Amino acid sequence: MAGSLVGIAVGFVVLALVFGVIERLFPALRQPIVRPGWWTDLAYWIFTPLVTRAVTRVALIAAVLPVLLVAGQGLDPERIAKGFGPLSRQPIWLQAIEMIVLGDFLGYWVHRWFHSGWRWRFHAIHHSSTHLDWLASVRLHPVNDIANKLAIALPLVALGFSPVATAAVVPFLTLYAILLHANVTWTFGPLRKVIASPAFHRWHHTSAGEGRDRNFAGLLPLWDILFGTFWLPDRQPTVFGVEDKVPTHLPGQLLWPFRRER
User: Fold this and answer.
1) What is the DSSP letter of 123?
2) Would you call 240 helix, strand, or coil by DSSP?
3) Alpha carbon 94 to chain centroid, angstroms
4) In Å, what is the CA distance from 44 to each residue of 63, 109, 194, 201, 222?
5) d(CA 56, CA 53)
6) What confidence tens digit (pLDDT) does each residue in 79-102 have?
7) Rg, Å, the chain Cα set
């Protein structure tokens, strides 16, 4: 536990220094560092690595093992690491690229699914921050987080991709998700329709009607363009949050989706 806390603290300080500088140099909106919701988001930076990821790991193992057994992989770590089938015989770098593209496509639809019906109760937690910056990136309900990872990981495992390729792309995708929430003006100019930018994702988080249910992709805006949900005007969004009366503290947010409707 002590080692985990030290690792979390070191990672947090490094990210705080990097994004602290970036957000001061290229701010989309002027806001104080310790803004409303800051302490709640800080709590998520402790809760998510220690609790959510541990539960997610157990859920992934429980879901993936039957797939591996059916595929004849057994429980041999070396065989599991190699993957199976024709896709696993490709170079790791090619598998990584394919997994990023396919994973982003799956993530797009899972994200849309969480924007409707009872799923929104869980996803509203992520959208509840009224001040968007890098710190708000981990404000995510465990149910939402686990469902995201299961819905993306299971198809990739079933297709036979090597877990080594997964290990290669996860750190990149994690850092990129943090960047998307940064309080910066970046649109990536001529690549604005090729790679998701912070401005692209900030429009997804806006509480203004024009940005509602837009920009679901986590990396490739192609999916939003194809399915009619792309939105990236030249100006920056200025308001964030949700209409739902979501609690402002971590314990309340964890329980809020399970409340009884009145």
Assistant:
1) H
2) strand
3) 23
4) 25, 25, 31, 20, 31
5) 5
6) 888 888 999 999 999 999 999 999
7) 19
Q: How many domains does the chain have?
A: 1
Let me know how many helices (H) and strands (E) the chain has, helices first. Answer: 11, 0
Domain containing 203 equals: 2-258
Residue 186: partners with Cβ closer than 8 Å, 6 or more residues away:
26, 197, 198, 199
**Alpha carbon distance 127, 47 (integer Å):** 18
Q: Locate the DSSP E strands across 63-220.
A: none
Is pTM beyond 0.85? Reply is yes
Helices 53-70 and 142-158 pack at an angle, to 10 degrees, of: 20
Closest among 124, 122, 138 to 43, alpha carbons compared: 138
Q: What is the mean pLDDT of residues 132-156?
A: 95
What is the three-class DSSP state of 205? Answer: helix
Tokens of 184: 């910066």
Residue whose pair of structure tokens reads 């991709």 in the numeric block: 161
Confidence of residue 195 (pLDDT cuts 50, 70, 90): very high
